[in-house]
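I hope you will forgive my troubling you with a question about protein structure. The matter concerns a single protein, recorded as an amino acid sequence and a row of C-alpha cells. Please examine both parts with care and let me know of anything in them that strikes you as inconsistent. Here, with my thanks, is the record as I have it:
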Amino acid sequence: MLHTTKTPLSEDLKRLVGQPVAAIDTPALVVDLDAMQRNLSRMAEFARKHDIRWRPHAKMHKSSAIAKLQMQAGAVGVCVQKTSEAEAMVAGGVHDVYISNEVIAPAKLARVAELAHQVAAERGQLAIAVDSLEGIRRLANAMNDRRRNGQGAIIDVFIEIDIGQGRCGIAPGRMAVDLAHEIRKHPALRFAGLQAYHGKAQHLRRPQARRDTIANVVQDVQFTRKLLENEGLHVALVTGAGTGTLVFEAASGVYGELQAGSFLFMDADYAANERDPAQPQFEHALFVKSQVMSSGLLHAVCDAGHKSHAIDSGLPTVLTLEPTGPLDYLNGGDEHGLLKPADGNQRVPHLDETIWLIPGHCDPTVNLHNHLVGVVGGLEHGKVDKIIRVDARGALT
C-alpha cells in the first residue's frame, strides 16, 4: 500500500510558472534553483575527487524529481528513513533506495518486501538497516512470504552500529558478527556492510571538534569491521556521514559512501557551523518567502509563523537585502513572525515588503509544504521556473 501525498497542483500554481518572483503568494517555500544546482555540482565534484560514492538523504527534500536530479549528477541512489518515503521515491521512478533505519512491524515489513520486488523488476535495489536478531528474522519472513518457489528479490541489509548518536544501532564489536551470521542464513537477505552515522557530530560548531569525533568513530568502525572479516564476513561497504562531517569520512579510507543530504539546501543550523577548508562551499538554497503584514515604530510582523517552518533547530534567520537591512526574527506564534532591526540597523520594514527567511532545519520544514516553488535568476529579480511536488510529505510510517 502506497502512502504518499498527491495533492493536485492548483491552476493558480500552474499559472505561476514563468511569472516573476513577486507573483509568489506568501508564505511559500521557495528553492533558488541556481544555488541548488551549484551545491549539487560541488558535491558531485567532491565525490569524484575523493573517489567515493554518495547517496544523499531524500528525507530532506522528499521529492522524487529532486532525487532523480541528484542521481543524474552522480549519486548512486538515495536514503530515506521511512517505508512510506521509500514508496514515494519508487512511485516517482527512483529505483535505488536505502531505508537507513530499522523496520520492525510485520505490516511494514510486508510493504518493504513488496517494494524490494518492485525495484528488482526495474533492475534496481532496495536496502535496509537492522540492529537485532529479531529484526533480521522478521525481515526474512516477510521476504520469504513474498518470494515464490525460492525465487525473487534479494534485499541488501546493513548492520547499524551506534557510534555516538545514542539512538538505534548496536554497540561496536562482537554483536555485529552474530547479526551478520544471521543475515547469511536467509537466501533473500544479503549482508551489505555497516551503517555508521553520527548525527550529533554534524552540528558541532568547530571543525576540530567534528574531526576529533569522527576520528573516534573511525576507530570503532575499523574495530567492528576487523572482527567481521576475521570471521570471513566481508564488509563490502561502510555507509554514513552527513553535511557537517563528510570531509572527515571521505578522508578516512574506511567509509565508501556518504549520506549527506542537507548540503543541497543548507539551512540556518548547518550554516552556523564553522566551515572546514576542505569542505565545499555550500550556499543557502531554501527560503520561506514572507510579507510584512503589520509595521510599527519598533517592530514589524510578517505572515510566516511556525506553520511555515520548523523550529526544532532554532528560529529562522532573515536574509539581509536592501533596503531593509539586517533583521532579527522573533517568535510570533503559528501565523506571525516578529521582525526587529539588528546590528545597528534602525529601519523597521514597511507594509508589503518581502522578507526571505532561512529555515533553521530544512527537513521538517519541507514536510510542512505540499510543493516547492523553484525559481531561477535570483530571489529579487528572477522568475518561477517550476513547481516541485513534495511527494513524501507526511510519509511517517
User: Anything to note?
Assistant: The chain has two domains: 11-29+282-389, 34-264. Residues 37 and 264 are 8 Å apart (CA to CA). The chain has a mean pLDDT of 96.
